[in-house]
Write a structure and sequence with these properties.
Helix content: 25-40%
Strand content: 5-15%
Largest sheet: 2 strands, antiparallel
Mean pLDDT: 80
Low-confidence stretches: 12-18
Number of helices: 11
Structural class: mainly alpha
CATH class of the domain at 45-120: Mainly Alpha
Distance between the termini: 180 Å
């Protein structure tokens, strides 16, 4: 029991009454304190010796409390100021918020911009000050005419104007999507093939994995494609070509493509047959009334030679 204990406090040194004993420790930290006259901040031991906060959180709280009012303490500003990463500074701010040393909130400024307001507490549990509006010098106003005297009891006063009623601006009606195509003759085989095409999409394109309850609503649209003699591979290529990244709503996306890319029905055999060419006009044969020679003319009469002889004889006379 005569072995001295290191953890025991040092014994008081003898001295004259009214004088402080020398308590300089023989090990551990030794403080050399100098009184500050400017540029200092008071930190409580509840923060400096906090048993839950990390060293980064304690140091960050001391830094924030040492800043003047209005200084920027955003994550980007602190990351540029200190060598710690953005993730470690963010975690330290969350620690300080959980222990009540800071409070961050999103506020909207008079100009409409949203910013983050940070309140630092040198002791958790204190009441936050109410933000005061900036004092502005009153604007000089032009002299106004003197107010009219108040009406007497004999004169009736004018009724007060009704308060203005706010009427919201009319909004345009939401445009409804076009209806899904429907087959003219929905046979069981046609509907079964359309359901197989929709279910098989996820095998080729995982982004278009449809829910089980979405497939019956889309089957009539695929059946309309199949009814127009479109091959299932052609339908699959039309639905999966040049997909957006990401596909947020697969069922809505497939529905829009089924409606927008619906091909026209194939023409029939009669529509593909070229129209017949018009037959050439056939002039019938006529027998000349003079020489009985055959010639083509629309009406009976004389041939060209007999007509020439007739004109020549008439001219000779």
């Amino acid at each position: 029991m005569d072995t001295p204990q290191v953890i025991a406090p040092p014994c008081a040194q003898p001295g004259s009454p009214g004088t402080l004993p020398d308590v300089t420790p023989t090990s551990g930290v030794i403080h050399v304190n100098t009184r500050h006259s400017s540029g200092f901040v008071i930190i409580g031991n509840h923060l400096a010796q906090h048993h839950k906060l990390s060293l980064i959180a304690i140091g960050l709280a001391v830094h924030i409390q040492s800043l003047p009012a209005g200084a920027k303490v955003g994550i980007k500003v602190l990351t540029d100021r200190f060598p710690e990463s953005e993730a470690r500074i963010t975690a330290a701010l969350h620690e300080l918020e959980a222990e009540g040393y800071i409070h961050r909130s999103r506020v909207r400024l008079p100009n409409g911009r949203v910013t983050t307001r940070t309140i630092s507490y040198n002791k958790p549990g204190a009441t936050a000050p109410t933000p005061q509006r900036e004092q502005r010098e009153p604007r000089r106003q032009a002299p106004t005419a003197p107010a009219p005297p108040p009406p007497s009891a004999a004169e009736p006063s004018a009724p007060p104007l009704p308060a203005p009623v706010y009427v919201p601006a009319p909004t345009a009606p939401r445009k409804q999507p076009p209806p899904l195509p429907q087959p003219h003759t929905p046979t069981p085989e046609l509907l079964r093939t359309a359901e197989a095409v929709l279910t098989d999409l996820r095998r080729h394109t995982p982004q278009l994995t449809l829910k089980e309850e979405d497939i019956p609503a889309l089957v009539p649209g695929i059946a309309a494609w199949l009814e127009r003699d479109v091959h299932p591979d052609t339908i699959r290529h039309a639905l999966t070509d040049q997909l957006p990244i990401p596909v947020k709503h697969p069922a809505k996306f497939v529905r829009s493509r089924i409606t927008a890319l619906l091909p026209p029905p194939l023409p029939g055999t009669a529509d593909l047959t070229p129209p017949p060419r018009p037959k050439p006009l056939t002039i019938p044969l006529q027998n000349c009334d003079t020489c009985d020679r055959a010639f083509r003319a629309t009406h009976p009469g004389h041939c060209r030679d007999c007509q020439s002889n007739t004109h020549a004889a008439t001219y000779a006379l």
